[in-house]
TrEMBL record:
It comes from Aquimarina algiphila. This is Collagen-like protein.
Length: 158
């Protein structure tokens, strides 16, 4: 059920037409937090992250998850989940995906052969989780694949 809801939310982002109504109220506050030192351990290779105290998610809100892919010249490079298929030099492949409830986020590492996946993909991962108010998500023209655009539009600081 979580998977279907997440897919529906992502599809809604992509297919919803945006209004040119300048009177749209974007005063709703988005929330975000970062989780580091995330290790994916078998056999599930999934991590459950409860929302911290004070983070409130409503039924219609949308949760976005980004993975710190690398740091280039001191700048963080964030990749939105679900990731496209990552093909490894070892011949392996993997993808990260997530689902969420009103209380938590599950982040999953999917691979047909974990033996071909190095620890640089399973250990000490960093994720940034952003809760987007539904009205904002529906009416904005923000590129949700760009964490900097999302943080700027929601006035979130890290």
């Amino acid at each position: 059920m979580k998977k279907i809801f997440t897919l529906l939310c992502i599809t809604t982002f992509m297919l919803t037409s945006c209004s040119n109504d300048d009177d749209t109220d974007f005063d709703t506050i988005g929330q975000s937090f970062e989780v580091d030192n995330v290790d994916f351990i078998g056999p599930e290779f999934a991590v459950n992250i409860p929302f911290p105290a004070g983070v409130e998610v409503f039924d219609a809100d949308v949760v976005l998850v980004y993975r710190l892919e690398e740091v280039v010249n001191g700048n963080d490079v964030w990749e939105p989940l679900p990731t496209p298929l990552i093909i490894l030099d070892s011949g392996g492949e993997l993808t990260y995906r997530f689902n969420f409830t009103l209380n938590d986020v599950d982040i999953l590492l999917d691979t047909p052969d974990i033996g071909l996946v190095g620890t640089n993909f399973t250990d000490n991962q960093v994720f940034r989780i952003v809760i987007v108010p539904s009205r904002f998500a529906q009416d904005s023209k923000i590129d949700f694949s760009d964490i900097n655009a999302v943080q700027s539009a929601l006035k979130l600081d890290f």
